[in-house]
Amino acid sequence: MRPRIQQADEKVRFTAYGHIIHRYLRYVLIRCTGYTNDKSQVQRMAVYALVTACLLFDKLTRLGQLGSLVEMMVKIVGEDPTWECNTYRWAETHDREPVFVLDERMCEVAGAINALDQFSRELLVLHHIEGIEIATLADAHGVSTDDIRQALAEAEGELIELLHGLSSWDGQIKPDVHALLMALASCIDQAWADALATYAMRYVAAWND
């Protein structure tokens, strides 16, 4: 009986890993724009963040801590001075290929969302881009739906305020946050992102062999 139980546990665990990678992949890619838009460097950052989040998932006391863990790993790799030096050395001999194809407006949207605090950014991406319902977010963070609804409204207001602080948005009508974030997500090289998700899952599987 024990091998069957172990196989069932592994199936549940890998299903959870798949959900984590799917839910946070675009969040991580957007977050990486605060450091680089180069595919080879983003791949390293994203795989580290996503695989670490999967492997440490069982250590979390609640699902709402997952975003903070992902954020911490992106920050650690993104601010690694050794990685920065290697980036410059690599750039001397290679052409950079972007993850996001961004026009000026989308660059400003990416910059504005990365200027928010981690919780606000996470709510905006998970709700508007990943389509996660307010009730699900509330359950993950152990708070009421009213709390999440209020936090989401505040995050949207802060994003709009940041955009209005930019000259190109002066005099604009109130930006549609949902439309802007969906437009930002559409700038991702989706085929590459899907391959990256598969790549991350292979690392997780290799660790558990």
Task: Write the element-wise H/E pattern from the N-terminal end onward.
Answer: HHHHHHHHHH
What is the rounded distance between the termini? 20 Å
Helix share, percent: over 70%
Structural class: mainly alpha
Tally of separate helices: 10
Query: How many structural domains?
Result: 2
Shape descriptor reads globular
Radius of gyration (CA) equals 18 Å
Number of strands: 0
Q: Main sheet, how many strands, which sense, barrel?
A: none
> Low-confidence stretches at least 5 residues in length (pLDDT < 50)?
1-5, 87-94
Describe what this molecule looks like in 3D.
The chain is globular. It contains 10 helices and no strands. The longest helix is centred in the first third of the chain and has 31 residues, at 2-32. By secondary structure, the protein is an all-alpha fold. The chain has helices at residues 2-32, 39-55, 66-78, 81-91, 104-114, 118-129, 134-141, 145-164, 177-186, 190-208. Helix content is 73%, strand content 0%.
